[in-house]
Amino acid sequence: MPPFFRNPWTFILLMACATAAVAVAADPTPEEIKEGERLFRDVYGKEYDRVGKGKAALPADRVAFGKKLWDAACDSRSNPGLFRVLLNKSLPLTLADPIGYPTAIKIRRTQLTEGKERPEQLAALATVLDRAARAEKPEQRAKYGAELVEVYREAADACYDLGRDADAVTFWGKAKAAAGAHLPPAVAAPLVKEIATDQAECESHRKHAADLKRFTQALQDRADDPKANLGMGLLLLRDGKEAAAAKHLALATIPDLKTAGELLTAQPVPFVKVGDAFRSAGENVAGERALLLGWARRCYEAALASDPRHPDAARLKLLIKELPSLRSFTPTGIVAVLDEEKSVADALGKSEGVAKILWSGSGYAGSGCLEVRSGVPKQAEQRGGAVEGWKFALAEWPNPGEYRYLRFAIRVTDGTHAFVNFGRVTYTVGKSDLNNRAAFSVAEKVPDTWLVVTRDLVLDVGESFPLSELRVGTDGVVQIDAVYLGRTRRELGRYYPKPVERK
């Protein structure tokens, strides 16, 4: 699947070596939580009784103690039980006074997980963000208000994906209200329209799915049903699948669309005639006018691309200028760092070193992926790419051209461990003994199927920095694919490439 944006790499370092990391806390077992409680009482028990539970303690003292526990939690990621206990103890303390809200927000972000509970976790984060925004002066509320709106939007998307439509509508309403309450009018107005568009698109997708199910059932009962074939053909056209749509349109009830379907299956395709058929149909099928005229324009463009000196070129150019283009949404909040970049592997594979770098034909979301082979557990030579332009700015509150969240797919087909390093942070799979504070384990066992990893770079690194290098290492074979940056998790979740379906 092609990326929405293509950005070459200026500096890529690939290393093959035995690696590991300080593990990020996974879901603790009851025994681990019990042990965490014991350790907490042993180290912080008296101070917690005095400051955390003492009625005479000042709010500022509670917040200071909460921040202390938060710092201890950050240093205890390798102990899941202690990590969980420290987070749970620190959160209410940081909420004792507005000066503790930034820490409480960090804690809530850390507690986010994937799964059915995510909407409620996002709602809990939104509660703290709302309190933080209301505690600021009106002109200072946008900092928290912007994230609050995005959190509500992500919660709405998550509810929609889970089939909780009523909850999704509620969160969309809260997102609009938050935009109006905490953002400047010039920012809030277009954002409210964007949220309304999100809601309309989701409702359209729901209708699309229902129509697809209905037409599929009708065609199973009667394969040559003209109305069902017409409906299925238009649905497939809307998805951009003209080859599949052609077979159904050829059996449709509307003559112009039937002609277009028949011509699309011809070899070679007479694009001008297909375009004329779509254009004629668009004049007579009001509900699908934009779609059909857009396909007409695409056919005319294909005709000129295949024959720039086409005898009907003058007419085609005029039609292309007048007809609407097919609506295609290009999100501005995500960028493909690596996706179908075979040239990178070809260039790096020529350099010498322990690791063998190549482009594998079995990718997560497309025809291939970057593959690094080692088998030799020692550091390889550093190597750099010759392509320029790969440098991205990261920020807690991303402006256009800045990003915060990282998502990538990783698979280990051989070996016991592997790592991927992005700038100042390293993510590992498998177990080993690398002593690196800026390293996080994303899987204790090496994933032999594609594992999609999403990270908050600002939370992991704690500062803004330019992302300008990549290192990959393993003692076996590791594959990396679909590396994307995004401003929000919501945008990544919506537009990140979908995995290839394999039989």
TrEMBL record:
Chain ranges passing through the membrane: none
Signal sequence segment: 1-25
PROSITE patterns: PROKAR_LIPOPROTEIN
Stated name of the protein: Tetratricopeptide repeat protein
Lineage: Bacteria, Pseudomonadati, Planctomycetota, Planctomycetia, Gemmatales
Keywords: Signal
Database matches in InterPro entries: TPR-like_helical_dom_sf
Highest taxon, organism lineage: Bacteria
Signal found in the keyword field: yes
